[in-house]
Amino acid sequence: MTSTPRVRFSASLRQLPLSAAPGHAVPANFGIRHWKPAALQQRQDGRIHRLSGRTMGTSWSLSLANPEYLSAEPAQALVQQVLDEVIAQMSNWEADSLITRFNRSEAGQSQVLPAEFAHVLEAALHWARLSGAAMDPSMGALVSLWGFGPRQNPLEPHKAQIPPEPEIERLLRSSGHRLLNWDARTRRLLQPGGLELDLCGIAKGFAVDWAVQRLQSSGWSAGLFEIGGELRAWGRRPDAQPWRVQLGSGMQAHEQPPVLALVDGAFATSGDRWHRFSVDGRRYSHTLDPRTGRPVTHGLSSVTVFHEECMHADALATVLTVLGPQQGLDFACRHGIAALLSAHAEPGAQAQVIRTPAWIKRFET
User: Fold this and answer.
1) What is the pTM of this model?
2) CA–CA distances in Å: residue 177 to residues 140, 289, 307
3) Which among 131, 70, 94, 99 is positioned nearest to 197, based on CA atoms?
4) Each residue of 231-244: pLDDT tens digit?
5) For burial by CB atoms within 10 Å, which of 98, 173, 314, 343 has the most?
């Protein structure tokens, strides 16, 4: 039994920043996970106000419990402010974002990170250490090498070619979270030289959390917010019922995705059903294993994780996807993670779906 906290952070780390200056960057694309957004299964209720938009190369939607029929325009503006600020700080698809400026900086240069960026980086490093680098926020150069990084047109097909082995090995030597010179107390990050951050496996979940917290602080007592299928609920619907969520779990086309009741908490999904390429009949996932610098090769098609916070659900979905069916299940069981793991179906067989004990306890008992 590990002595590590069971997917928890201290109160100080879990407290998200309450405000930030409006971002000046235009909406951009994180270039990740082009799966279909989760369907939000709800009865039509005039006391629920629905808003939507586009961000990070995907869509966002918000359902607000609004029994007093208040104007939702302030909520729309608040959500857009949060999304613009996350992009301005953490999108390496933006030429003038903070993360892009760090990635292009010379060896020995340092930056003091905003509280939000520091919060996300600290969480990513936590999971990197705990998982043996199954998740690593410093793999940006390798992500780009494989063609999964920023492109002029994010929706264009993958270039479908394998990078040279010497180049993979070279970038592996200059990547890795242990090379980061990070001072959490001062929030100062030093560029060791040639290292590129990529927070795509966690930043979208953080954006969900931050928007929800801002909405709560503005007086919205209940709602459901999602970005590209990663979602978080708080409170109950006006009829006192929980929110009903149909997961985009990556199951086979003939299978019915589960519909779950959710009051407070978040879901995130990682998988290769919507973002992959093939060369010579071999499937290559968009998820890289930071330990090898190459796409994962096991049979998992998707992983869905429940957590109190979407940022951690996002990161853990990536961790379990990289670890694979057995190691991922072992890690989830060891740390009490509620997860649903789906494997590709073998020819003539049904796809395997694995539910962790924490998932069964929370959603099926």
Assistant:
1) 0.84
2) 11, 13, 24
3) 99
4) 999 999 999 999 99
5) 314
